[in-house]
Design brief:
Blueprint: E1 18-22, H1 29-34, E2 39-43, H2 62-74, E3 81-85, H3 87-102, H4 114-118, H5 120-135, E4 139-144, E5 146-153, E6 157-164, H6 168-177, E7 180-193, E8 203-215, E9 225-226, E10 233-236, H7 241-253
Parallel strand pairs: 1-4, 1-7, 2-3, 3-4
Antiparallel strand pairs: 5-6, 7-8, 7-9, 8-10
Helix pairs in contact: 2-5, 5-6
C-alpha cells in the first residue's frame, strides 16, 4: 500500500473550534468570550471595561496584531484560547497598513473597489496566523459588531439581513474560515397593547425577555452557520455563558478527548 493510502482514516482531525460571534454593542459578546477557559484577549477596541481578564496591550497597527499572534505561536505560554475583540475594529488597521504600503491617502483612493480587493491578502495572512495558533491547540474566538443591511433577492424580494460589520469581501473570508458563526441577540416576544373596546386601538410591539440567545443556523434574517450539527439556537446564561456552547460542541463531536479541543 502506498504511503498516502496507508494514512487514510475516517476520523476527523481533532482541532479546537474557530468561533465568530457577532452582535450589537452591549449584548454580551465580550463577557461570552471572557468565560472561555484560559482565554487571552487582544483588545483592539476598548471593550473590556471592568472585566478582570488577561489581555495583551491594545494594538495600534496591523503589524502589531500580527506580531502578537506570531509571538503566541512561537513562544511557550499558558493560554488555551485567543479572543479578538473586535475584528471590525481591526479592519481600519488593515486598510491603514495597505494604504501606507501603497502610498494612498485612504482605501477609497484606490478606485473601483480595488483597495478592498488588495486587502484580501492581509486578511488571509491574519486568518492563517490564527490557524497556526489553532494547530498549537488554541481555541479562536473572533468577536464582531453587526449591522442591518437591505438585501434585494430576485427570488424572495427585498428584506433586511443582520450581518457582521465588515466589508463584504472581508466578511466572506471570515465566514469561509470559521467553524461556527453565531448571532448573539436578546430574545424578544411580541405583545399586544391597548384593547378592542373602541377606546384604544390595539397595537403590537416587541418586549425583551432578557434572555440572550446564540443563533447558529442561518434563517435568512441573519448570518450564522456551524460545521458541528449544533442546535439552531442555544440559550446563553449570564453565568458561564460560553459553557452553554461548549457543552453542545462536546455533544456534537462525541469524543471524550475533544474536551481539550473545545
Amino acid at each position: 500500500m502506498g504511503a498516502l493510502l496507508s494514512q487514510v482514516t475516517d476520523k476527523p482531525p481533532l482541532l479546537p473550534p474557530r468561533i465568530v460571534v457577532h452582535g450589537k454593542g452591549g449584548v454580551g459578546k465580550t463577557r461570552f468570550a471572557a468565560n472561555v477557559d484560559g482565554v487571552l484577549f487582544m483588545p483592539i477596541e476598548d471593550g473590556l471595561t471592568t472585566l478582570d481578564v488577561n489581555h495583551l496591550p491594545r494594538p495600534t497597527s496591523y503589524g502589531e496584531v500580527m506580531s502578537a499572534i506570531t509571538e503566541l505561536a512561537n513562544e511557550k505560554h499558558k493560554y488555551k484560547a485567543l479572543a479578538i475583540d473586535t475584528i471590525d475594529h481591526l479592519e481600519p488597521l488593515v486598510w491603514a497598513n495597505l494604504c501606507a504600503a501603497e502610498g494612498k491617502k485612504n482605501i477609497e483612493t484606490f478606485g473601483y473597489g480595488k483597495g478592498y480587493t488588495m486587502a484580501d491578502s492581509l486578511w488571509i495572512d491574519f486568518f492563517c496566523a490564527l490557524d497556526a495558533l489553532r494547530i498549537n491547540g488554541m481555541t479562536i474566538i473572533v468577536l464582531c459588531h453587526n449591522e442591518s443591511k437591505n438585501v434585494d433577492d430576485p427570488q424572495h424580494g427585498s428584506y433586511t439581513r443582520v450581518t457582521p460589520k465588515l466589508h463584504k469581501r472581508a466578511n466572506a473570508l471570515m465566514y469561509e474560515w470559521a467553524d461556527v458563526v453565531g448571532y448573539l441577540d436578546i430574545e424578544r416576544v411580541a405583545v399586544d397593547k391597548g384593547s378592542d373596546d373602541g377606546l384604544a386601538r390595539k397595537t403590537r410591539t416587541l418586549m425583551s425577555s432578557g434572555q440572550r440567545v446564540l443563533y447558529l443556523e442561518d434563517m435568512g434574517g441573519f448570518v450564522a452557520k456551524n460545521r458541528y450539527d449544533l442546535p439552531s439556537q442555544i440559550q446563553i446564561p449570564k453565568v458561564a455563558p460560553y459553557q452553554a456552547l461548549r457543552s453542545e460542541l462536546l455533544k456534537a463531536i462525541k469524543v471524550d478527548s475533544a474536551k481539550e479541543a473545545a
